[in-house]
Amino acid sequence: MRLRGMGPTLLLLFGCLYMPYHVKSQVLGCTAPRSELAALQRRSRWLFEKLLALGPPPWQRSDFDFSVVQEMTDIMSAYEKTSELVVVYEKASYTLADQDSPMPCLPGIISAELLQLLWIWKVERDAPRAASLFEQSQGHLVFLRTISWARVLQLGFGLVFAAGQTMCGLVSSPPESEDDVEHARRHHSSWPGSTTSSATVFKQYHVLTGFDYRQCVDRFVGFRSGDSPKACRGPNTGGRASRQSRRAPRRGALWPHRQFATLAARQPWACGAACRQASAFAHVAQAVLLQGGEPTGSLALGARRGSWALSEDQEQLLEVAQAELLLSEPTYWSANGVLQVQQSCSLARAFPVWLLLARLAGIRATELVREGAEHIQRELPLPTQPPPSRLAAFCDMIDTWPPTQRLTAQGALATYFLVKTVGGLLDTFGVRWWASAGALLGAVRNGGILPQDCDVDIAIWRPDAHQLVKPAFRAALAAAGVVSYHMPIYFQFRFCLAQVPAAADRRSVDGGLACYLPYVDGHLADVVPHEPDRWHYIHRTDLQYAHSFPLSGIFRRSSGGALSDARQRLPFGSYFEVWAPQAAAAELYLTTVYGGDWQRVLRGRRDNELLHNATEVGSKKAFYGSIARPTGPLRDVLAELTAFGSLEPGAEVSAALD
């Protein structure tokens, strides 16, 4: 058997990606009566199961059922004895030109080809030759990745996925390139412009759930359980089910797979080939769990005729899963045929999507996972977790005088840029805000970001906060290179640089994500209930900030109860000014939070150890100028967006400012 001449086939299969759905159905062929197709597929499945049951050689002659020889001959005859996929292209081209000609049945031909390879492996006992032939026929895997999965299952050809998954057990892993590893190391250790790798999404998932998603995948398909929870358990697929198990099959939950799919969808730039394969698995796993039991109808090859079919939800999940894999398709184009097969099978062993598709067709999954496990390690080596962008380190550590700057030079510029951009957008959208906590101390006493700080805290007036969740505001942030994460438990919004890798954070409702330092934290503030002349933070878990402060430092209240602006502007570095309470109110705030000696004394953050006493200097400016540097120059993103007409907050903002 020869498996070559794949160039024309690739053109045909890639052409299917851009055809309408009804045209894809025609390209699939299989125009024979449904009863004939079903009978042929029952025989193909019988042959497939017989070949799998042979096990590893050597086996005795008495173990072999010689009827499989006749079955293989009949199946190849039914598909016109095709021995290489180039025949498919020639027939398909003729059919597309002449609509009166019958279309070859692509799923059936691919199944027959894969059964031939399985025959060489199991009957002829020549696994190296079978693997070599499979590695030279990347068109098989192109078909499995790109053809409409739902359509193939609805036609009853789920066996093609089972055979493809089984043959991948023979393929060796792609060789590691030292150049690629070194490039990734250099790429992830720099900023700006650094891009996260797929490992970031897996690491985030591990932080949020406490287990690796690959362990969850292993338990779902029945390979091994590891440390994954019972929620990762797949449907009960083993043996003959009892009456009770048929009524309530043992299966896991949807949330482990939804969590990973959500993380991947929220960070498409951070999702590489391994991540997309895992995301596709997560979607197909949900489709399997929605099945509710063993299929007993048209999707189960060899089963009695019934009414089982894919639901609308299952079809949508399969469509999204396949779209995930198609996004990774260009990564295979630059590789030669053998390397394409090795890369695709390496991913398929780690996240066996085709195995789950076979499960939807009623083919038991456990045997397929274990088949070939003795030939190759199944786990996929993922790239190591890239280090966080080197913008900050050991923040809030005060151990010397003068204090050591914790932000790198790039980190300081990035933080000042964040304050300027976020503050400017808040002003543009009519959201009133002012510096608070360490940012206010830095503005009043030092003139910028405190050397020991790596973040900036601001207070946001709660009646204006509805602007922060509107699409226009978030779009403006995105255009400026900033992302925001909402932490409603803490009544807090976190603003981060889009280039910095996201970090897992259980407090965030935005996919469980936040970011690494540096960032700007916006804490919601409002009028104290029953005390209309004072304000406080809505969230007050930290007792240091669990106080109320005079509202007169922020707003002036008219006789009619309306509030007018009373904030002042203070320099924050050399290129920007922040909003702050009036001088007397700011000093009262800092005295309440940091003690009465905040102007001249520097103490350690944790042990309150006295590090520097400037009283003897006799100047209130003893700390002024001791800030994180450099402070600029800073890019004026708001001016650029305004010039391009991209910053249009809307009429409701001007009304809010009146």
UniProtKB/TrEMBL annotation:
Pfam family for this entry, one: LicD
Domain called LicD/FKTN/FKRP nucleotidyltransferase: residue spans: 430-475
Keywords assigned: Signal
Signal peptide: 1-25
Gene Ontology process terms (BP): glycoprotein metabolic process
Region (Disordered): 173-196, 228-251
Organism superkingdom: Eukaryota
InterPro entries, sorted: LicD/FKTN/FKRP_NTP_transf
Name assigned to this protein: LicD/FKTN/FKRP nucleotidyltransferase domain-containing protein
